[in-house]
User: Which sequence fits this backbone?
């Protein structure tokens, strides 16, 4: 990595830590959600409707996806659009540093925050509520990485085409709710009626939730879910690169 | 040897022609001022030199490079202060200076630059909390921090108080002494006169005049102004006929006559022949302001608009 890219990353991480709102929603809230749901006694009992799983078991992956979606859809696009709107990219374009380094730093930092959040959620789930560690750890990490890539790529499109930070927040909020719904925040994907489930499993949230669930139970996730995540990532990343507005 | 060569530059935005066949050469080590009314194409020209825009037609060469194509090489040579460019809202002055210093191989001391520009007291203040003038001074510090061989400064002193203006001028003069070439877009005639070796007047996307500040003043239609209070009433229409006179005005009992050096001699001769004494006689050189007005037919903006 060239030296300007490195100092940009260092500077941007300082700035990232100065956003208490983003920090809370990405890193603290998902764990808080696990704690709140885990405090409800019936959610800690095996449920017949969930094939003997407990509600809290299902909400551990959902909380991790919540973190990924918060970071990618709610937080990152605003930073990107703001840097365009405030002409930060433009000033950097006149120096030996490259404006794309500023954007790359956002992907890296938001991705890293999600990883931290995921570790917190898994730890708290394991220690406080006896949620079993993923049966197939490698598969779990793979699905998580693909889900994160898909979310960040979609966020990149929103940040790339929104002319202002305000508009990117509006679009982000619009995209946020369907993504959280399909990830199963309101009703886990497994509990959805068959027709709806088939559609939801084609979305990044739905495919990720199902894939994580399978990996948690120690299975290798269906190729179908992995493919859905890869396609979303490739298409969104392509669109972000193609339609990004520098000015 | 020209370090910047622009030939036949033409830039259009939709149907609006921003730059219309502009030619310009800038010699290494000179300070060139660019003057002109708003919307004349000054900023677009600067952005083409900085390589931020691809020339529609014509060519731009900077130190033998195409600034739009050879981005990496150009950014190492150039320090640019743009009219519209921001920084991260929560970045402090100190962090901004450190960040931009890290982009260059042999940067200046950021703290010293801050001190010179009166930013020491706000060194840990975040960008969004700085006043407009402080943001402007920081922008200048960031443009000069890499010891650029070419400095492009678009509206250098807009929004600065007279004291900061002088601090900034000092830095620009110092950069020139260190061998830098400076291009300065300005609305301030005092700044243009004090700093620039040559001035280019841009209007409607073309260069309408390019000369030393003194040369431009001499080119104006009426380089000399003569004012006096006649001892007896004078028919001003007679004065109009004197050689070189371009304007005659009456302010109360005073007469103001615009013309050249010969007009002054002629007027004094005429007054002597008619036994009129010229009381409180003042002969002044017309200023760059007058020349600018004359050459563009636009009002001079002495403050930020």
Assistant:
């Amino acid at each position: 990595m060239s030296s300007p890219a490195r100092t940009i990353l260092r500077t941007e991480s300082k700035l990232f830590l100065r956003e208490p709102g983003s920090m809370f929603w990405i890193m603290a809230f998902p764990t808080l959600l696990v704690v709140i749901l885990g405090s409800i006694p019936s959610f800690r009992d095996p449920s017949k409707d969930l094939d003997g799983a407990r509600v809290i078991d299902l909400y551990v992956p959902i909380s991790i996806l919540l973190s990924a979606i918060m970071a990618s859809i709610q937080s990152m696009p605003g930073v990107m659009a703001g840097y365009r709107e405030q002409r930060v990219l433009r000033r950097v374009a006149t120096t030996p540093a490259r404006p794309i380094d500023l954007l790359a730093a956002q992907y890296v930092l938001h991705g890293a925050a999600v990883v931290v959040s995921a570790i917190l959620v898994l730890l708290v789930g394991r220690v406080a509520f006896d949620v079993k560690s993923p049966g197939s750890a490698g598969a779990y990490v793979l699905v998580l990485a693909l889900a994160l890539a898909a979310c960040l790529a979609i966020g990149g499109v929103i940040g790339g085409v929104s002319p202002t930070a305000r508009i990117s927040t509006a679009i982000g909020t619009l995209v946020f709710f369907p993504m959280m719904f399909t990830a199963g925040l309101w009703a886990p994907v497994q509990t959805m009626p068959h027709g709806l489930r088939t559609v939801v499993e084609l979305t990044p949230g739905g495919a990720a939730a199902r894939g994580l669930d399978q990996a948690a139970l120690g299975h290798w996730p269906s190729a179908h879910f992995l493919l859905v995540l890869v396609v979303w990532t490739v298409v969104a990343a392509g669109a972000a690169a193609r339609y990004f507005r520098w000015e | 040897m020209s370090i910047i060569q622009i030939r036949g530059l033409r830039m259009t935005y939709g149907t609006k022609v921003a730059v219309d066949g502009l030619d310009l050469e800038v010699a290494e080590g000179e300070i060139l001022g660019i003057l002109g009314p708003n919307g004349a194409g000054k900023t677009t020209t600067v952005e083409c030199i900085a390589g931020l825009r691809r020339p529609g037609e014509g060519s731009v060469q900077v130190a033998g490079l195409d600034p739009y194509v050879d981005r990496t090489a150009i950014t190492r040579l150039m320090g640019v202060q743009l009219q519209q460019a921001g920084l991260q809202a929560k970045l402090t002055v100190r962090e901004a200076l450190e960040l931009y210093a890290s982009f260059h191989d042999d940067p200046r001391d950021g703290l010293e630059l801050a001190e010179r520009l009166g930013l020491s007291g706000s060194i840990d203040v975040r960008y969004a909390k700085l006043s407009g003038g402080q943001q402007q001074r920081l922008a200048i510090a960031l443009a000069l921090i890499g010891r650029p061989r070419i400095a492009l400064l678009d509206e250098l002193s807009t929004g600065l108080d007279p004291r900061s203006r002088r601090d900034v001028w000092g830095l620009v003069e110092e950069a020139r002494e260190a061998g830098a070439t400076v291009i300065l877009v300005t609305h301030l005639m005092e700044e243009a006169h004090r700093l620039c070796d040559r001035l280019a007047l841009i209007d409607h996307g073309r260069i309408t005049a390019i000369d030393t500040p003194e040369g431009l003043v001499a080119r104006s239609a009426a380089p000399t102004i003569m004012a006096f209070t006649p001892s007896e009433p004078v028919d001003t229409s007679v004065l109009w006929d004197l050689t070189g006179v371009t304007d005659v005005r009456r302010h109360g009992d005073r007469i103001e006559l615009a013309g050249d050096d010969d007009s002054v001699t002629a007027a004094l001769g005429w007054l002597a022949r008619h036994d009129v004494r010229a009381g409180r006689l003042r002969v002044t050189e017309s200023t760059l302001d007058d020349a600018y007005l004359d050459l563009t037919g636009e009002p001079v903006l002495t403050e930020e608009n």
